[in-house]
Specification:
The chain is of the alpha+beta class. Helix content is 42%, strand content 12%. It is built from 17 helices and eleven strands. The strands form three sheets. Strands 5-4-8-7-6-9 form a six-stranded mixed β-sheet. Helix 6 (71-82) runs parallel beside helix 8 (105-127) and helix 10 runs parallel beside helix 14. It starts with 8 loop residues before the first helix and ends with a strand.
């Protein structure tokens, strides 16, 4: 099999600019000529083996970063944006999108920001809410979307926060992380009580009193305890991280701060090095990991998708949570599979069937239109309200990876991986899915001609050419 050439011009430029080196100095350290470096940075030539070795030796660069980057995410996001009817007559081919994502990622992000602003303005007009006439009307992204994209393009991994949480967990001792957190808060003068409250957590800064719901599960209590600890004891770290992110609004910054505190809590309960080793030993058995670390199934699945530490990466997983309407409420992917930014997930995906079988894991072998094959794991994680009449929050999660990692997953045992017919065809979003004969297609695909014959009716009322 021919070796795939590595084009990573944008990543080379980012590395050089981060090191504050001129092209001439960078070329000298890499042992190449200035014209050769210029060609590599502009993706006119692939990155050579000697340059990869020099990056590792001279700068301690994690060379696996060259192959990951944001290119696939950007291409997926652009394809979804181009599915907007406004581009129907002028949608560029996929090859052009890939070239732009590789050569000009900053331009792509600016385009995505512009399309998001257009979409929000269009939705305001369509809903007749007179938002354009209000003084607080904005064309900037919603705070929620801005924060979601921040974590999305950080690979859902924040190194400084992760390592700090791991260091905190290392001092827990045999009593465990929960006792260590309670002791730390007590030393800070915070009183912790467990009471029958309607919410999960309440902190009174004036009285320095933290109240946690006695109705919540032990896993939820422990998580909320560490989340509050992060907000109180790691505030400087969280604020420094937020400064680097440069959010556009105070609301986005506030949402992101909670997100970082959540990240700290998960990383403290499941410290990177220890958790990664346990994941390998158990072959990523979510139930065993949940029991070992005192975490919920959802917390374990989410943590597995964050094991992206440079130089010590775990299996690249995707993780997603959906509600009963199919709307994606959490999403992250370290794989080639990227989720739609708007709307729901492909209806052929097993995550939607998880609501029908509460408490059970569903396995699925699936293949996306690009020919990549995955093993998917889905499970209902609905959350009872804790009392009669209290509403149940219904969610399902999915965790998956490319099938080449199947040997490392206990869930792949006894599946017919060698049989192509065992892999179900799935997609991302109907408008960017290229499958012609999908029985669940809701709208026609982008970049495809349609034939409409009033004398015939097949699965769809049209034929995709």
């Amino acid at each position: 099999m021919a070796t795939q050439k590595l084009y990573a011009g944008a990543k080379l430029r980012e590395t050089r600019q981060r090191l504050a080196l001129t092209q001439k100095d960078f070329a000298t350290k890499l042992g190449v000529s200035l014209p050769y470096l210029n060609q590599m940075e502009n993706n006119n030539r692939p990155v050579s083996t000697s340059v990869v070795l020099a990056l590792a030796q001279e700068f301690g660069f994690d060379v696996t970063e060259l192959g990951s980057g944001d290119s696939e995410r950007l291409v997926s996001d652009m394809r979804e944006a181009m599915a907007d009817p406004v581009f129907a007559e002028n949608a560029p081919p996929l090859a052009d999108l890939r070239l732009t994502a590789s050569n000009a990622p900053a331009l792509v992000r600016a385009f995505l920001d512009l399309h998001r602003a257009y979409r929000q303005t269009h939705e305001r007009l369509a809903s007749l809410d007179e938002a354009l006439g209000r003084e607080d009307a904005r064309t900037q992204p919603s705070p929620w979307d801005e924060v979601r994209d921040f974590f999305h393009y950080c690979d859902n991994y924040i190194d400084a926060v992760d390592r700090t949480a791991e260091h905190f967990a290392s001092a827990a001792g045999p009593a465990g992380i929960r006792a260590h957190a309670l002791r730390t808060l007590e030393q800070a003068g915070v009183t912790v009580s467990f009471t029958d409250i309607s919410g999960m957590r309440h902190y009174d800064p004036a009285a320095k009193r933290l109240t946690l719901s006695s109705r919540a599960s032990l896993e939820t209590q422990g998580f909320q305890l560490l989340l509050q600890l992060a907000l109180l004891k790691q505030n400087a770290l969280l604020e420094a991280t937020l400064d680097l992110a440069r959010f556009q609004t105070d609301q986005a910054r506030a949402i992101a701060k909670i997100g970082l505190a959540n990240f700290f809590a998960g990383a403290a309960i499941m410290p990177y090095t220890t958790f990664q080793a346990a994941a390998r030993d158990t072959r990523h058995d979510l139930e065993l990991l949940a029991h070992r670390f005192g975490a919920s199934i959802e917390q374990v699945a989410h943590r597995l998708s964050t094991l992206q530490r440079p130089g010590a990466k775990g299996i690249p997983f995707f993780f997603v949570r959906v509600d009963q309407a199919g709307t994606i409420t959490k999403r992250h992917s370290a794989t080639l599979l990227q989720f739609a930014r708007f709307g729901g997930a492909c209806p052929l995906w097993n995550v939607h069937r998880a609501f029908e079988t509460p408490g059970r894991f569903l396995r699925q072998l699936a293949e996306t239109p690009d020919g990549v094959r995955y093993i998917n794991l889905a499970r209902d994680v609905s959350k009872p309200g804790g009392s009669f009449g209290a509403p149940t929050r219904r969610f399902a999660i999915a965790l998956g990876c490319e099938v080449r990692h199947a040997a490392d997953l206990v869930y792949a045992d006894d599946l017919d991986l060698a049989n192509p017919r065992a892999f179900e065809p799935i997609g991302i979003s109907c408008r960017i899915c290229e499958r012609k004969d999908c029985h669940q297609r809701s709208v026609p695909p982008l970049e495809r001609r349609l034939t409409i014959n009033s004398d015939e009716r097949g699965i769809l009322p049209y034929t995709v050419d």
